[in-house]
Amino acid sequence: MTPLQFESLYSARWRELEAALDQLDGQKTKKRKNPFDPVPAAGGENKAPDAARVAALYRSACEHLALARARDYPVHLVEHLEQLTHRAHQRIYHRAEAATGRVARMFLVGIPQSVRAHGWYVLVATLAFALPLIGTAVGAAFEPGFALMLHDAPSLRSYEEMYGSDAEAYGRQRGADSDFQMLGHYIMNNIGIAFRTFAGGLFAGIGALFVLVFNGLYAGAIAGHLTSRGLGDNFYSFVVTHGAFELTAIVLAGAAGLAIGHALLAPGRNTRADALRKAATRVVPVLYGIFALLVVAAVVEAFWSSARWVPHEVKYGVGGVCWLLVIGWLAWQGRAEKTDAH
Fold it and tell me: What are the extents of the domains in the chain?
């Protein structure tokens, strides 16, 4: 079916849906030159649209949008259907929800669904980060000089002091007198890493992969070196809890960057600008999730991970629970909800 035939076959239903939405929004339908312009609903403007009919038109418009995308129909046709289905969804679902309800739905449904929709990018980002991290950690743990390939000697001594048995608080840098000062440092540092990872996607995805690999090598060398120095318990009990949030956010930032890079490399029948815009729109929920994870990670790192009074065993237990919660949230939350077609 050609785009023109597709449009001729279904445009009457789209106009009917748009006219109904105009009535629901209290707008007056007007005559326009655009063939997609609404026509007055039967029975006059004062008659409220039938809710079942509006729902049915919305579902069919979602199906038409999916078909238009799958068949690479012209951009203007896809964009019109995207705007129409988005508007209908807002009118049918979102306006009935309070602001807190919309936020809750975003975190309980929108973010995990979006992460799963980018599953292949998440897998590649995970491997790009985890494999260098594990490899360098093992190498540095068994070969004391291995870490010097990635860090200079003064930096490694500084890390030994930060996680030594006489440290006032684990992970606290010199010059930081309180957990609140470290909180600000962690937020800025974490967001900076995530932003660089995501922005690296603009370089055809290669930049995102580079940042992921580099951070994996950097962190793995530190972990392996501290393990070889007998400070493994101090270090791993420090990172295990906030790492569930921070490392997940970094991987998701890399996945979002890879999605952007793929859109630039393979735009399909769209222009690269259109492909970039659409890819950016699709990863917005993932970016919300990244920001939330980084803020949680910073708070946990400043006030829990650094605490010396908490036994290592307790931190390992809490950390394990946090990892299960994050993985469960992203892997299963919102599966009972149908993903919006738009």
Answer: 3-96, 106-332
